[in-house]
Fold these 3 entries.
Entry 1:
Amino acid sequence: MTDYDVIVIGAGNAGLSAAATMQRGGRRTLLLERHNVPGGAAHSFVRGRFEFEVSLHQLAGMGDEGANGPLRAVFDMLDVTRRLEFIVDDDLYRTVVPGVLDVTLPCDWQGIVETLDSHYPGNRAQLTRFMELVRDTGVWQLVARANLHKMQEQIEWLSGMSDVRRYALKSFQAVLDEFFTDDRLKHVLASYWSYNGQVPSQCPFMDLARLLTLYIEYKPYQVVGGSMSMSSAMLASFLEAGGEVKFNSDVAKILTSGGAVAGVRLSDGTEISSRMVISNAPTVATYTTMLDDDVVPERVLKDLRGRTLGPSATVLYMGLDAPAAELGFHASTNFITADLDERNLDRANRTLEPARYLVATCYDVRPTGYAPPGTSQVALASLAYGRPWEALSPEEYARAKFAYAQSQLELLKAIAPGVQDVIEEAEVATPLTFKRYLSQPGGTIYGFDQDVSDSWLFRNEDLAPNVPGLVCISNWTGAGGYNSMIVMAARVCQRILSM
């Protein structure tokens, strides 16, 4: 008899979702986490009288009781929903290019058509057709992903759809160019590109269509208490079902016997047996560090060598001694770009140039409970690849952090010019910060670059065992983001339980 039916490595979003699903499905499950708290990037930290949200901008896929989104369905299944309090954002997002455009989109399909047609007249017919395409394609994908426990059948079904066949290999920018000529309108519609990690010309249309559908169909949400409250709720669900968790437990090795999983060895030498390991660690680390070379198929190693690291981020966290409305924030999520040329964005993401793009998230347009009354918490996040930061000396690194944060503040002046005068607390995280705390190569927040070749439509084998008894569920195996990771992990575990 083994010590556990299942061992889950890593108590981030996907690990918590997987552990709770397996335990509630009747499998004796052990959750191992190298840190002393759960959550991974779904976490918070305190500076002065402010508690800062680390990574959540908007929560997708919730919906209400009348229109259950995929995330709410999983939270309901895991008895998590009742433990949390949610706030619906009033708007989808605000997009700003200083001196060029300033558009706030509502959270409904027709409202988006009306708003954009009022800003850019003459596009109503094209807007209607485009939004119908996005909705149809996005809904089809959500249905398929909701049935990942029947993965192959769902992918074959989805691949048979005419719009999927036509657009699956196209970028979001290419599809926008088919419908529109106004670069300003196209820029507004592509605003969510950073949630995928790729500029619009590299971002798969299918991925952004699914993302837009999640937010428009089920509304963007904030969570009272931030993402850490979700981590705590999923852990509570797991423990109440009889699961066990060990913190400060670093897995050094996944043990095998006869080519199949046999358990794990911790860094302190402790060995724990199990015939199944679910790894929320980076796929690269799982296959090249935790496993012996002779049990990993060569095709897996070849595939890993052929893929590239996705971006990390540089984030300026600010506690402001002024209310949100007074500072100019009327939308929780604000996309601010220096100009319309995506080549400048892509170059800036890969260098130490000043920020040319940021997501300015204000958590107190409708307060989430982190900031004291009369104050507000704002995070300025810009995508940034890790390599340039890794090349800096300690002295250069300190200067680069300060300079980059200043450039983010310069961009923020487009919507909130008085912020710099009311900063009470500030902290900067760079790709090196995320690399250190999340143990992700390059500090990547999306795993591999999520271009067309990385789409789950073409890489469904990522979710299938390459070593008997091993399942990988991290952000390296599918689309990143809170909804995607939590839902994907639960659905994959449902598939395992049904076998």
Note: The chain has a mean pLDDT of 91.
Entry 2:
Amino acid sequence: MRRSLALALTVATACSLALPASAQDAPPSRVDFRTKLQPIDGFGFSEAFQRAAVIHGLQGLSAAKQKEVVDLLFGRRTGAGASILRLGIGSSADNVYDHMHSIEPADPGGPDAPPKYVWDGNDGGQVWLAKQARSYGVKRFYADAWSAPGFMKDNGTDANGGTLCGLQGTNCASGDWRKAYAKYLVQYAEFYRKEGIRLTDLGFTNEPDITVSYASMRFTPAQAVEFVKVLGPLAKKAGVNLSCCDHTGWDGQKEYTKAIEADPQAAKWVTTITGHAYSSPVTSPQPTRRHAWLSEWGPGGNTWNENWDDGSEYSGFAIAENIHRTMTDGDASAYVYWLAASVGATRALIQVDGDAYHVSKRFWAFAAYSRFIRPGATRVAVTASDPALKISAYRNADGTKVVEILNTGTAKTSTDLSLDSGAGRAQAYLTDQDHSVSPVTGARTHGRDLSVDLAPRALTTVVLK
């Protein structure tokens, strides 16, 4: 026995010496739960533009099917357990589908005239959905405006870009609407408060860099800073965190972030930096110490697709990669997908079709993160020795630990992770073409070591208790 062991050690040593220096020097895979990175606020989505009514009202889902969809979205036992709901603040004078109705549909007669607010208690189905979310324990409600009502803008309509009257660079015969728009946004939060929903976060612009045929409004970085100083005191008095600025791209948002950080008066009012990932992906952190959210992203296209790994950007695997990159490269504190549910050729997580619905693998990629990584968690340091494995790890406020492992390779494999403390009991969940956050065996702990069997082209979530 001793001779065999000695021989084995000799052979192993010789093999080690024969390895390239890069392989010998590769650090072991390790998770350090004590090295804290960014805090996590949660994972969520939107149902703006009357998409909430797709679940409740417009499409005729039965009460039983409505409950099933809501449980998928917010339930933590078998659903996604989403913890953020993004609401769209309306600006349209009409209430046709795919528009968001304004709480002030008509010009009151000028910026200094008493506003004529109208509240229907429904808000395109969003009030109902917010109440459902609250019943599942959701506490983070982010309301964001695509545009001010048209009469407050220099182009006279809530669509096709335009700029809020009164901002630098505008010249409106109707006057300065900055304060009126700020009060409008705060009033929206007040209407929700009366419905029993406390809006925690408030945004005054969405994709301020583009002009589109639907609700939209332009802000330069300087104009955004200017308006922050108008809205900030009112938002604070209303008890709502102010966010900015939801640029179409993560890199483009950095210019707005820098502008806010460079102005002490504006910086004191902004709690959260928000950006999208359409015109530029998430590749590096925002230049701020504030919490930064990917506040909207969803893949494009014109077909419904339920596949896990077909090479498209709307596959479940691609969404898992997108979430991983957002959290690790971008140091994001939140990941907010665009739409939860919609109809037709949608890239939403769920497709509603009459009294039926279909669930994409995008949904299950999202759920594999959102169900287990809870608000108040912290991302922690990971060193991965295998470049085919994309690993991130988190420590929840209740002490549970989560390790997300995306195997980009085409073969089964396993990985050993050294932990900074006792591993405890491990439970693995597999997401691939045949599994949807399904409990599986294959995660084993021994002291401070964690070993995990990994399916090819799959996401494995390990929860340590």
Note: The mean pLDDT is 93.
Entry 3:
Amino acid sequence: MFTATGASFAQEQKPRPKTRILFLLDASGSMLAKWEDSDRMMVAKNLLSHLVDSLDRYENVEVALRAYGHQFGRERNDCKDTKLEVPFGEDNADAIKKKLEAIVPRGNTPITYSLQQAAGDFPEDRSRNVLILITDGLESCGGDPCATSEALQKKRIFLRPFVIGIGIEPQHEKQLNCIGQYFNAADIKTFETVLSEIVTQALSQTTVSVELLDEQGRPTETGVNMTFVNALTGEAEYDYVHYLDGKGKTDVLDVDALLPYHLLINTVPPVLERDLSIKPGKHNVVQVKAPQGELYLRQDGPSPYRVLNTIIRTAGSDKTLNVQTFGDRHKYLTGRYDLEILTMPRIIIRNVEVKQGETNTITIPPPGQLAIPTQVQGFGSVYELHESGAQRWLCNLPEDNSKLTMALQPGKYKIVYRMKTAQSSKFTFVQDFTIRSGATTTVRIFNR
């Protein structure tokens, strides 16, 4: 036996995980290029020093520094020139600032290899791992930083990285944009602003309200399961049942803005809102059109069917959306549906319309019953007879014992049966019969 406990409130009560920010700094030779009144490396060092100081005031945040292109000169063409200079730890701002002072730009730009090595810089726990790449150039060692970044994100090594480009030509920006969220630091002031914006995005609370709209565009739909799906990995990040309060207002949900999301609304059929645009550090309202109506399957009077199921499909489609039991009510998106009722014979009802806020009630006549009291062995089938004179096979009768009681919908039928003891096809038993609602029709099989 499984008993639900307070774990059902885990989404509300779980503590916010530690955030770890790894600065991946380009220290290749090109970082010595002049930039306004200084050079690129000096500007990056100064701004990063101020930034790690400001991060000291945040609780539950750790920082680290990795650099590349600084250990060997370009003449060596070393494509493994990358090093974790300061690992993650508490109160390590001074260590990072001292290390920044000592770094001298010298070599290549091995971005791909540095990303691969950075994967091991983060401790193996459930922290929010953030990587900030600062570079003034593209991959120079033939690697594929975009594919590497995507693979590491899928493994949840780190969230979608931030990439700050210094002096990057517009035609080359696409090569960095695929690594992560790209920012163009066209000047020193923009660089400073971008660093501040990234920290805000990484550490500020982000909230979302989901409004489920009816056909008039009003947020009246509710009570529906919804899932925030990681757009990169396909994993479910958050599961909720939609809620509206007494004033028709939806509630506010916390989300991690550094993950990419699709929103799956689990109506029937489901609605998938792709690539949500969520602004970090702000409250976001996501609107999804999901108007619903209700389908009620009802059968009057007592029924010999123990459970009568119906296959629900979108009109004109062969894909099963739902299996609904007679006696139940179920909501569907507004539209038209085909119903296959699993009676004997099956009843097909096409283009059943479901309207916004309305209940469409479907009824069928109560079945009757076929009773075969004869206990014989043999081979036979039941056929449905049509007014045109055509017949359609419905089912076979048991070979070991023909005695049975079977529920059938009202109509005309035929039994075709040959006992095992009969020595010729000409001894086949054929009997027409009629089934009426709520009545039992008895057919006795004889050897002819």
Note: The CA atoms of residues 54 and 447 lie 98 Å apart.
